[in-house]
Write a structure and sequence with these properties.
four-stranded antiparallel sheet, 16% helix, five-stranded antiparallel sheet, single chain, 3 helices
Length: 171
């Protein structure tokens, strides 16, 4: 498809193709709305970029440490990609956080506006990013208003007087 010149390194010669920091791009995946793009290089690096008009700005680079090309790469919203190898799916977000999801059979991923539908010969899974509001409520040790309200509700069901203390924290 093309070459990628790592902006953090200077080329050793005037042509990017002969530079040691230059890599061939083997796969290109564009997000559902066309605002983000992901490139996979021959050395297994995933390059996340934002498309802004006619320019492409690199946001982050993730090294998969694999020279084997994944069978499929799709976007999950505009915040992460899913790359399917023969026995697992690797989810990687723009901040280089990753999650390995096992895949034991033939798998096909279908992109939806808000999720990825993973279909194999036995089942279908919908994988969606956890919303920030949900994280704030259920994170361990959270003191967000939603977490306090949830704890107050649990204590109220147990008819505990401590429920009132959690309600006062919300105000």
């Amino acid at each position: 498809f093309g070459t990628f010149q790592n902006p953090s390194q200077e080329p050793s010669s005037p042509t990017p193709q002969s530079s040691s920091s230059s890599e061939q791009i083997t796969v290109i995946s564009v997000s559902f709305d066309g605002s983000h793009v992901c490139f996979l290089t021959e050395k297994g690096k995933l390059i996340f970029a934002i498309i802004n008009g006619s320019t492409v700005n690199v946001q982050s680079i993730f090294d998969t440490e694999s020279s084997v090309r994944p069978e499929q790469i799709v976007w999950c919203e505009n915040s992460a990609i899913a790359a399917h190898w023969s026995n697992f799916i690797l989810f990687i977000d723009l901040h280089k956080n990753w999650l390995k999801f096992p895949a034991y059979d033939f798998v096909h991923m279908i992109v939806e506006p808000d999720c990825i539908r993973v279909i194999d010969s036995h089942s279908q899974n919908i994988i969606k990013r956890v919303e920030t509001a949900t994280l704030e409520v259920f994170r361990i040790g959270s003191i967000s208003p939603g977490a306090n309200l949830l704890e107050a509700s649990r204590l109220f069901e147990k008819q505990s007087h401590q429920a009132d203390d959690y309600i006062r924290l919300i105000q």
